[in-house]
User: What shape does this take?
Amino acid sequence: MTVDRYLRLIAGFVVMLSVALAHFHSPYWLFFTGFVGFNLFQSAFTDWCPMMTILRKLGVREG
Assistant: This one.
């Protein structure tokens, strides 16, 4: 898989996990969902995402 696909996979998983935690544990987990959404939003304009940097350093190939 490529960096872009891993990024979408990780972001989707984190959003689903934080929504489930908000439902079963505490609504404060929705702040984590907002954080992920904000990072995706800013990366659309800056073309930089912290998770993409981490994935590249781990050796995941570019798309």
